[in-house]
Amino acid sequence: MTTDAEHSEQIISHYGGSTPVRSRWTYRASEPYTVVAAFQADTDRWVEWIFGRDLLAEGLVRATGDGDVRLAPVTSGGRPVLALEIESPDGHAVLELDHAAVQSFLAATTDIVPLGSESDYFDIDALIEEITNV
Question: What is the pTM of this model?
């Protein structure tokens, strides 16, 4: 597998249980420890959140996270959802995502880089070069 492998898909989130919010989820083998969730704030503006793929995996089965990103599997309207709570100095939001859609996204990421083998894909030399060539 090459480090340029990438998976991206859209998942409709719900804010306040009813307002739809389009989100774009991306995983790259070149950044094997993280996922990027981008939420459409306006017609042409997206807000990105980057967090650990392991946090996402754990959040699908139990409440987790104690920082700016917290996840928990819950039931809303009789259906299983993943509650994603995000917080920044600019605000706070709790979004509900279809649990099965997020599981599908996570499964696609593990096809690219299996959970637990991220270090095999992480290019530490490239990171050091990026940091020292600022």
Answer: 0.84
